[in-house]
Every structure is written in C-alpha cells, then in structure tokens.
Amino acid sequence: MRTHQLVLQWIEDQLSSGELTLGGRLPAERSLAEQLHVSRTSVREAIRVMEAMGVVRAGVGSGPDAGTVVIADPTAALGSALRLHVATSHLPVKDIVETRVLLESWAASRAHPDAPALAEAASLLEQMENCSGTEEFLALDVRFHLALADAAGNAVVSAMMGSLREAIQAYAGRITGSLPDWDATAARLRAEHRGILAAIKDGDGGSASQLVADHIEGYYAEAGLGAGA
Amino acid sequence: MRTHQLVLQWIEDQLSSGELTLGGRLPAERSLAEQLHVSRTSVREAIRVMEAMGVVRAGVGSGPDAGTVVIADPTAALGSALRLHVATSHLPVKDIVETRVLLESWAASRAHPDAPALAEAASLLEQMENCSGTEEFLALDVRFHLALADAAGNAVVSAMMGSLREAIQAYAGRITGSLPDWDATAARLRAEHRGILAAIKDGDGGSASQLVADHIEGYYAEAGLGAGA
DNA sequence: CCTTAGACTGTGGTTGGACCACACACCCCC
DNA sequence: GGGGGTGTGTGGTCCAACCACAGTCTAAGG
User: Fold this and answer.
1) Is A54 on the interface with B (CB under 8 A)?
2) Residue A30 resides in a domain
3) Which of B44, B89, B155 lies at the smallest CB-CB distance from A91?
4) Would residue A171 count as lying in a domain?
5) Of A61, A127, B69, B160, which is the most buried if we count CB atoms within 10 A?
6) Three-point CA angle B11, B13, B19, nearest 5°
7) Above 80 in pLDDT, residue B52?
C-alpha cells in the first residue's frame, strides 16, 4: 500500500468513527505528517484526493476559514469524474441524458407536495420569467431542476442529478447556441416548468414524472441530439 | 488557480481533443513537469487526483504496464466518493439502497433479452448454486447484479450501480452476519435470481423490474434495515 | 485612553533536489 | 548460442527551504 493511501485510510477512519465531523478541521499538514510518520508530500497527496472527492476544503491563512476543513460536496466529486470519463469518450452523452431522465422523472414522482424546496423552485420560476441572457436562464434552469430533485428527499439522487448536469454543462451550452429560435424555446421551457411544478403540488406524481421526461427529452431532441435521448 | 489544477486542465484538454486516448500513456512525470514549467510535485498531485477518478493508472518499472496510462474505471471514482460521504453521515444508507432499487429496476425493465451479459449472468447463477462460503456467494451476487445492469446497455447506469454497491459493501457484509438463517436466505435469493433472469429472457421487462425491486428491498428488510429501504 | 501601523505566527502552496525500488532491455562473458 | 550482470527509465518517497496569505498581537502615536 502506498504511503498516501495510508493517510487516506487514516482520514476515512477518523470520519467513520466520528472523530472528524462536518465542519471539523484536520490537523495541520506538518503535524499530520509527523503524527503518521510520513512525509508532508504524502499527506498533501491524500488531502488533494479528498479535496477532489468533495470531502475537504483547504484554505490558506488564519481564522475560521483557514486550514483543511471537512465539507460535504458529493456533487463535485461525481461531476468531475463523470466529466472526465465523458472526455475519454467512455461514457456517451446519450447515456448521461438517459440517466438524467430516469433520475429526474423518479424524483418528480416522489416529490413531496409540501417540501420547502418547492418554494425555492417557484421563486426560481419567477426569476426566469423576466431574465434576459440565455446564460442566466440556463443557470436558473439548473437550480430549478436541482430544487425539484431535492423535493424528493433522497440525497443520493440529488447528488447524482447535480453531477450529471455538471458533467454535460459545457455540452449543453454548445448545443443551445444551435437552436433556431431561442426565445420561442425559452417560452416553451417556462410553460413546461410551470406545468411540472403544478402537477407536483397537486400530488399528481405520475403526471409530473411524465412531464419531466418529455421536458428533458424534448429539449435535447430539439437541440439535435440523436434519437433515444 | 493552483498549479496542480493547471496540470489537471492540461490533461483533460488532451483527453477532450483526443490526443490522449484509452490505453495511451502520459508523458513521464519529470518530462511533463518540465514541459508545463511546474514542479514534479504538482504533476504528481494532479496524477493522484486523476488516479482517484479512475482515469489513469500509475505503474512503476518498465515495459507495457509501466508508466501512467489512461484507463476507464468510473466505478472506482464514484464508489470511493460515495463511500466517503457515507462515512461523513452525509449520505444515508437508506438513500443509497433506495437509489439502488431505482437504478436496478430500471435496468431490469430495459435489459435486452439477447444481451451477451445475460449469458454471463446465467453462468454466475450456476456458480452460486454450489458455492460454500457466504463471502463467495456475496461476491458472485455482486457480479450477477452488475451483469444485469450491463444488459440494459447504459454505461452510466452500470457505473453508478457498481459504485453504489461498492459504497455499502462493508455495510452489507456486516448486516449479513446478523441474519438468522443464512442457508435459507441464500436459497431464497437464488430462487429470486432465477425468476428475474427468466423474466428478462421472456422479454417481460415490467415483471422483471418488480421482481428486482422486491428482491433488493426484501433482503435489506430481512437484514434489519428500517422500513422504506 | 483609544487608534493604528507594524511585526509575529501559523496555515496551505510551490519548488528543487536527492534517493529508493522496480522491471524491462541490453551487452558482455562464458 | 545462452545466461547473468548492468544500464536506463519509471513511479514512490522524503527532505529542506521558501512564498503568499490572513488573523492576531504588540507597540508606537494620537
């Protein structure tokens, strides 16, 4: 076993045993190196991996925001990994979209009509009504869909959904530019969003699920992604 | 932007542009450091992250297996990340199981009856008939479920399924020890496996989907995981 | 007494160099 | 022609130093 993996194991054990919790701070790199009898280099490599996994965040300087603290950002880890594997052409964009439809339609069917996340979704919907640029619209769109996923109350599905969206963000931005009439598309998307939100609030999960699936598949189909997506 | 992120960006660009492909080899760490005008330490940190993401594999020595080569193991990345976040208690095991049911039941409903992966699943089923230890049984069980997921032909779903299973592998092993009658449970699981495989081969996706959901939920329910999982 | 400009301390970030173990490839010697 | 030692290049590890940053403490000045 390589040295940095030993450090990784130590940190994971600390997390599992509860000695390191969310918001807690790891020992300083130099202290940790001495404590585990390894070099600071190995400690740093382990922390780098943890950082890529969205488990810790390293901050320089002093004060409460400094040092290496435990965070919880599973979306970052999954998103980066998926994006890289898309870059290697190992994960087809078609499969990403298909999985996104699967997760989101499930979330819509399971969303609680009185979840607080739905209030945020409604607020985002209003902001989308009067927003100018396509970039701003897309950013709000991402947050809207994430809010819907959160309403289902499954942290794993929410994280996976966010990471899928992140992984193909650059791709989605490119195909959006090729749309024939953005204003018309945006108006349609807004109307569909309202329909989805209304269905969820009415407790009609089955209908909401179908609307979400049509919404996503319709967008990618219009943008020119091949059949099946 | 930190130095190692610059290296990460460079590697990702090489992957996106196709100059680095599956099976290809990265320049040696020392060469890459000189080429990008950074220290070898920064290059190593970047490679370490890529390794954790399942994108590259580092090997010492000489020959075809040496050096840092591009691989494609998205399961490793997702699995480690999920496992760590489960360790921080940020992702409940209940949500993991729920997501597993979602993905696997979808895969069962979409599996192609003549997919080559089903032949492997059948072979694994035979091996499970006459196997002794519980560990061996569980290992074969993992491979059986992965084969079913592969039969659906969605690489993203397959990867996510494998990573979910990996993330709770230690957990599953613990609860298995608390089962009252392992032999009876194993016999039931085998029978359910046969039923699932038969449904898929008959082209009855809906039935297969329901059988898979019952199969997984039943197991965790028997092992004592709370309701809803 | 209060304010403020400076030094101090501890954090991660980066670098260069050195040495090790490993595994293949080559070459000399038998 | 065959076999063992050597050469070369790879990643793995460690060390010592320096930098930038940010909060804190201190001492000088009002």
Assistant:
1) yes
2) yes
3) B155
4) yes
5) B160
6) 85
7) yes
Q: Is B61 left (phi over 0), alpha (psi -120 to 50) or beta?
A: left
How high is the mean pLDDT of chain A?
93
Strand D contacting residues by CB (7 Å): A 2-4, 33, 37-42, 60-63, 65-66; B 26, 28-31, 40-41, 44, 47, 58-62, 66-68
pTM of this prediction? Answer: 0.93
- Beta-carbon contacts of A55 under 8 Å, excluding residues fewer than 6 positions away, are A15, A70, A71, A72, A73, A77, B81, B84, B85, B88
Chain-centre distance for alpha carbon A161: 6
Q: Which residue of A has its CA nearest to B54?
A: A81
Which tokens go with A79? 């998103």
Rounded to a whole number of angstroms, the distance from the CA of B10 to the nearest CA of chain A is 12
Dist CA A137 CA A128 (whole Å): 6
Q: 3-class SS at B67?
A: strand
H or E element at residue A40: helix A40-52
Protein residue at shortest CA distance from C1' of D8: B62
Q: Which of B51, B70, B89 is the last residue of a domain?
A: B70
Exposure class string for B23-51: b at 16+ Cβ within 10 A, else e: eeebbebeebbeebebeeebbbbbbbbbb
Q: Is B66 among the domain residues? A: yes
Residues 13-52 of chain B with CB under 8 A from chain A are 15-16, 21-22, 41, 44-45, 48-50, 52
Same domain flag for B100 and B27: no
Distance from the Cα of B210 to chain A's closest Cα (Å) equals: 15
